[in-house]
Every structure is written in C-alpha cells, then in structure tokens.
Amino acid sequence: MKKYDFPAIEEKWTKRWRDEKVYEPDFSSPRGKGKFYNLMMFPYPSAEGLHVGNMYAFTGSDIYGRFMRMRGYDVFEPIGLDGFGIHSENYALKIGTHPAAQAEVSEKRFYKQLEIVGNGFAWEERLETYKPEYYKWTQWIFTEMWRQGLAYRKKQAVNWCPSCKTVLSDEQAERGACERCGSGVEKKDLEQWFFRITKYADKLLKNIETIDWSEKVKIAQRNWIGRSEGAKIKFKIQNSNLKDESQNPKYELEVFTTRPDTLFGATYLVISPEHDAISNFQFPISNREEVEEYVANAKKKSDEERIENKEKTGIELKGIKAINPANKEEIPVFVADYVLSGYGTGAIMAVPAHDKRDLEFAEKFGLGVVSVILGGEENALYEGSGPLMNSGAFDGMDSEEAKKKITEFVGGETHTQFRLRDWLISRQRYWGPPIPMVYCDACAKEGRGEQKEMPGWYAVPESQLPVVLPQVEDFRPKGTGESPLASDESFYKTTCPACGSDARRETDVSDTFLDSAWYYIGYLMRFENWKLEIGNSSFAERMKLWLPVDMYIGGAEHSVLHLLYVRFLAMALKDAGLISFEEPFPKFRAHGLLVKDGAKMSKSKGNVINPDEYVKEFGADAFRMYLMFLAPFEQGGDFRDQGILGVSRFLDRIWKFYDRKTWGTSDDASLERALHKTIKKVTEDIENLQYNTAISACMIFLNECEAKGTMSESQARAFLKLIAPFAPFLAEEIWSRFFDNEKSRILDSRDESGQKGFHSIHREAWPTYDASKLIEETLVIVVQTNGKVRDQFEISLTATQKEIEEKALASERVRAFLGGNAPKKIIYVPGRLVNIVF
RNA sequence: GCCCGGGUGUCGGAACUGGUAGACGAUCACGACUCAAAAUCGUGUGGCCGUAAGGCCGUGUGGGUUCAAGUCCCACCCCGGGCACCA
Fold first, then answer.
1. A483 with A427: CB under 8 angstroms?
2. What burial letters (b/e) apply to A484-514, b meaning 16+ CB within 10 Å?
3. Range A596-601 average pLDDT
4. Residue A600 CB closer than 7 angstroms to strand B?
5. Which of A194, A312, A423, A668 could make an SS bond with A361 (beta carbons 3.0 to 4.6 A apart)?
6. A78-97: string of b/e by CB count within 10 Å (b at 16+)?
7. Is the pLDDT reported for residue A688 higher than 90?
8. What does the pLDDT read at residue A661?
9. What percent of chain A has pLDDT above 90?
10. What is the pLDDT of residue A245?
11. Which nucleotides of B are covered by protein (CB under 7 A)?
C-alpha cells in the first residue's frame, strides 16, 4: 500500500486546479443553475504572514463555496489583499521598511500561503487595494460622492490618535481608544472631510429587517445607528438683571429630549462645552472667565478620561435664566461635559426626578427635583412611564399621550434623532489613496466652486485619475495635522481645473475602509475596461449578472466598521444610478473567534498559531478539517494541538480504505441506510454552517464501513463527494485514481473542453439522499418507570401501541420495580418510548 | 448599568418540535503486533456503591411546571463579547 504522500499530492493539485481553471466561473454566461458569488472578507497583509484566524474564516467560506459548486452553481470565489491603509503602514513603520516595499513582500507571501491551503479561489480576478488601477476607482468613488453632495469638509471636534498621528472616525475610536493601536483618543478641532452617512441612517436601519445576517451583527448595527424619537423644544433665555422685558434681547436655546412628557419637571438646562452659544458668547453672562476656563479644561479631557470618570462637573452661566415654556418658571442654565455636543442640539433640559444623570448633577449642585410622573417608589428616581402629576392641565394624562400634547402645547417639533455621526474619511497619513480634490484660492475668493457651500473646491476630473501616490522617502506621520504629502511640493502643486490658476491638491489620504467598501464590485471589474456606469460595457453586464453577493462570510468585529460603510456606499451608489441594488450582501454570516488552549491568541503570550507549521506537518486537508471540526463555525472554538491527530487519522483511514479498493458487488442494505442518513446530515449541516457535526457524521459512516470491511462502488463515490469540500486534495486524488469516469457532470459541456484530461471531483454533482432509504427496519423502544430508563427492546415497525405497551409491561426490570402494583398510567410516545407511572 | 452569546465528563464539543445526556474526536488505562519503541489495531474511560447483576447521583445555583427538563418558567451566580453620560 502506498502511503498518502500529502506534500506531493497537494502541490500537484494546487497547480493543476490553477492551470486548468477549475475554479474560474464563466462570467458572461454562468453554468449550471446559475451564478453564486461566494465572498469572504479579504485580509490585510499587515502581520508576519497569514493568520490562522484568516484561514479559519477562509476555510469555512470555501467549504460553502465548494458545496454550492457541487450543487450545480457556477461559483465565483475571489481573493485579494486589503493592503492599503493604516494597518499595513503601521506594520511597515514597526519593522522599519517602506510600505510600498513591504507590500510587495507581503503580497508574495500571502498569495503563496493562500494557495497552499486548498481554497477554490478564482485567482485571475485577484486585486490589491494599493495598486493604482484599483485606487483610481476608489478616488473616482470619492469624486462621485462629492458630486452627489455626500462629501463635505467641516471643522469640528474630531477624534485624534496621538500615536497614529491622524484623525479617526467615530467607528474607529472604540471606547475612546484607537481601533488600530489602542492609544487613548484625544479631541481636536480640525477641518476634515466627511461622508454624509447620516443621510442614510433611516434606510440603514430599516433595511436591517430585510437582510439575512447573523443576529448579533444586526443588533450591533441597530445600536450603533441608534434611533430615538423625541422633540426639539425651545427655551427663552433672559438676562436676569433686566426686569424690563422689552429691553431684553431675544435669546433662545433649543434642546432635544425623548421625554417631552416630563417638561414640567425640567428644573435647569445644560449645554455642552462645545455649544455654539458658548464659543460665540451670545449670552450676557457675568462669569465669563470662569466659564471659559471650565470649557477649556473640558475640551482638554480625552475621551478615555471622560469615560472613566463619570463624576459630574459643570458650571452655571450666571446672569441669565431660561424660561420653562410649560410653566413659565425661571430655571438656571449650566454648561457641563456630561452633555455631548454631537448629539441632538447639544443642549438638554434636565429632569432630575426622571433621569439618573440629571439627578446626580442636581444633587451635586443642590438643584430642584420635581416629580411629574407617577410611578416607582416614593421620592426615588423613576425613569418609567405613567400618569402625569404637577403638570397643570396635563395631570393624570398618560405619559405616552402627554409626549405629543406637551410638545404641541409649547410649540415644539417632534424629531427623530440618530446616534450615527457622519463618516470622517480623511487621514493624515501616507499609505492610502490621495483624496482627489483640488483647492483654488482664486476661485474661493470669488465664490466659485463645484459646491455652493464650499467655494474653491474641485474634484479631479476622471481623465486625470488616478492621482498617483508619490514615492516619498519620509512617509512617517508628522503629527502636525497634515499628511506627509503636504511636504511634497511636486505633489500638491497643481492648477485649478476651472480657472487654470495655481491651486493646491488635498494632501490627506482616504480611510482604509473606503478601499474595502467597494472591493466586492472591484473583483468583477478587470481594471482596464471599467466604467462605473450602467451602460454597454462588459463590466456593467457582469455587475448586472453577478451582483449582489450571494454569501458573505467574515468577522463580527467589523459589525459597525466595514459592514456599515459598505452598506452605506452601496445605497449612495444606487442613488447615483451606478449600481442596481442597495444591499450588497443579502446574506452574511459571522464566524466565531478562534482561541488557543482557552486563551486569546497574542504575540505577547506566544500562543499564536502559524498555519504553515501545521500544513507542513499534517497537510492542508487535515489542518483545514480540524479547524472546522473543533467547534461550530459560527461560534468559534478552542484550538488544541492534540485535536488535529483525530482528523489526521480519519483522513489516513479514508485513504487506506479506498486504497484497498474492496468494492462489494451489492449495496448492503444497512450500509445503504447509513449512507443516506449521512448524506442528509452532511447536506443539512453544511447549509447551516455546522461543519463540526458534518465531519462527525462522516466519521461515523467510515466507522461503519470499516466494521463491514467493504462498501459498494456507488457508495464509495457518494461518500468521497461528501468529503470533498472538507479535504479537497485527498478527495481529488482518490477520485482521479478510481472514479474519473463519472458521467454526472453538473455544469456543462464547456467543462469538457476547459479541462484537459481530468474531471475534478469538485465539479461533480453532490449526492442526494432517498427518503425511502432512511427508514429503519425495526423500532427501538425505551421503557421507563416514573420517567427513568429501565429497559429497551426492538420491535417490528408494524407493531401496535397495545403490543408495545404489553411488551414493556412484560419486561422483567419493569416488573421488579412495579413489585406487583398496578400501573397508574402508561404514556406512549410513538416509536420512541413507553413510560409506566405507578 | 444596558444588550447579545454561553456555563454539559479530564479536554474540544454532541443532543430533533421536552422523550435513552455525554454522539464524534482528544486524553488516559489495558491488550494485540514488535527484540523494543513509534505507528497501527482492539477494549474500556461521568461520579459514588457493588465481586456481579444492578442501583443511586449527575448538564452553573436555588425554586417551579410536567408522566418526563440540558431543553420550558421564575430568581440568582459566573465566563466571553458588544455598547456605554446618546438626554
């Protein structure tokens, strides 16, 4: 017997699959049942090599793709590298190379690793986000967003990472820490580029109900978008020193609240330190210096400090009072940093009796507390609903109804507020696509420009794209609020596309997440002929035929990053008439997290798994099968070195079993039943991504075959196909040795000409089960007394309930427990058990 | 604090709409093969009592519903993840 020589066999098939384009779909005319776009989140090649977490995700996705192909779909499973951006740049900084040079090294390394693990990738369509032919279109999308009025520049307090020396989006400032490096994020007032994602807040939220995604990701997006219904209410502000109202200038403060029903209980107002009223000093306040000092201190606080220390601070604006529009009472106005500037109007009405935070503040500053909702315990905080009190004419009204009525009563307007903020898209870094915008001073002075609100700004015309990222030696982030490109005069000096005078290019680059927000379209593009237009181009045809993606698999850590941005961009492109769908991924599944020996993998712990070592020792098949066997794919699990042995032995046993080639002449009935049960189980499990139990079912079947010592040829073929998605090399090798004369081709005749001299098992038809073959010959009935198992027996399928109960009562064990007593009750569960109660 | 997951042998994990808890692996022990070891094959492997047959206990804790609960209900504890002063 020849030992299974996996290194040679895996190398052979890797090459053959690629050479003979086994995994390339027919883009213009999909074969079989039609197209199936099977996408996995592409990796960013920032680390030393492919991470086992990547492999885990890819394998799970690949099994699904192979399964769908065998079920007759023309599967497109592309691969590429998300190599532009801060991830890769930080890695280059760390090891002291230039990111462009590093990209070349990583590219080779990653593709090599990706190839040896046995995924059915369509290699010809691969892409890298840092190639000019790719980022030309990333830039073009930026200009398109600009033309749609979805890109704008604005000065505001933004997240700044002092270590990465760039601004970050809200999504990338996780709990006040930089998503990339973990440093504490600071607030800086800077003028930056934003994408108007908030325009789509409502649609992003509503569409969640229509897409088939892992529930936890949907929940995360709902929370992040954060819709609240409430009202905007205006409070008059008056100078408390001026008694003559006619002399009093008309100041107003508008607040947002979700509880207008509690308006009678509002005993003070609070505005955020960044509120316009403060920066412009509209109000005639008497303690201006104190207030300025407080505001300056508050702005200095990092997000981290604000999150850690929730002790309320604030200062009253002396000399002014607000008028509660409901009861006309004068109430004080404070500035305090527990009120956020970017949400609602940046000002709130405080109702300490019915809001925990307001109560904390009121207690600290000795402010009034007036209960206006009946409910909860007396004199205790109550945040629920109920009938009103202390609310004049509204007393007794239910709070839900009062929300509307009180808003009307004071002339407020109902308002739906989202937590989602616009996507800050510019970065003061080097390794990214330069933002393709030009600023012309001359035009600005005369108020000319492409957008009224932003005179002087022009998008780089398509004919001049890409704006190539220049090769600069000192690419390190400067920390000045400008990108390294701002030091390269030859880069930023240009002429105005409108008037021809000297102009300056934008020197910031765009966020990495813009690169990955459209890559699923990029895979269909073939750079040379792409026009993002619904027109006559072959690309447009491919888009129509192949999009949206049929199955998307990736990590849940992107719930509010990539997965939100990509949905937003699709909606924007749809509205611009550039694509024909608004949800790019109707079906998405998040895979679980892989840990090692119960602990998270990290370099500092030294427990990072290097896939190469395992592939070398056990083969790619064994490694990928073990990854899928160790736990449910969507749950994630614990990688233990010893576990791989079980799978490795299983594959060896398959090899040996087939190598003996001891096909029986007839289909053994019980083995046939076992096979059909296995087909059913494996098919259903793969559909549900429960690969661990699918593999287990295969093991059970092989155990039975070995016990019998034989199986028929047709059984051997069917079983091998079940193994194929999990162990593609082994299955292919056995197939080519024994069965490559199959006539069950599922795709079509194009395969015959496309492949020279072999028929891949990966294009064979997936076996189907015959329900009539699943039926057992006899029933096994369990016998219980008082719910405890005492006995069991076999009986024919045709036995009546009476016969079964009699047989159960006749059981010696049962009789021993009954001890001559008559049973009180007999419960019969058809085909399963008899429970005798006494 | 809020929202999701999840707590099952020595370990990873199975268990349909409530119906034989521990599938499949790993580990360990013993046996076969071998001069020997590895590999491979076979048997056993939740705890307690018992020579055995068998019995009792057992799915985080405490209660409940039911002929029957890992599964349903109530209260609580622990672990992992997400959000967090969003008015």
1. yes
2. bbbebeebbebebbbeeeebbbbbbbbbbbb
3. 73
4. yes
5. A312
6. bbbbbbbbbbbbbbbbeeee
7. yes
8. 75
9. 54
10. 56
11. 3-6, 11-15, 19-21, 23-27, 39-42, 54-57, 67-69, 81-87
Place of tokens 């090692």: A596
Q: Is the CB of A811 under 7 A from strand B?
A: no
Does the CB of A827 sit below 7 A from strand B? yes
Of the candidates A621, A546, A522, A544, the one whose C-alpha atom is nearest the C-alpha of residue A14 is A621
ipTM for this model? 0.94
pTM: 0.92
Helix (H) or strand (E) holding A639: strand A636-639
Is any atom of nucleic acid chain B found less than 7 Å from the CB of residue A220?
yes
Residues 549-568 of A, Cβ under 7 A from nucleic strand B? 556-557, 559-560
Span A25-55, pLDDT tens digits: 999 889 889 999 999 999 988 667 888 888 9
Strand B closer than 7 Å to the CB of A306? yes
* Pair of tokens at residue A36: 């199936």
DSSP H/E element including A636: strand A636-639
- Per the listing, tokens 């700004």 go with A457
- Report residue A753 as tokens: 């000409």
Task: Please identify residues in chain A, positions 247-286, with a C-beta within 7 angstroms of any atom of strand B.
Answer: 256-259, 272
Minimum-distance nucleotide, CA of A216 to C1': B4
Closest CA to A266 of A360, A362, A338, A349: A349
Q: Within 122-181 of chain A, which residues have Cβ less than 7 Å from strand B?
A: 174-175
Identify which of A517, A303, A525, A520 has the alpha carbon closest to the alpha carbon of residue A425: A517
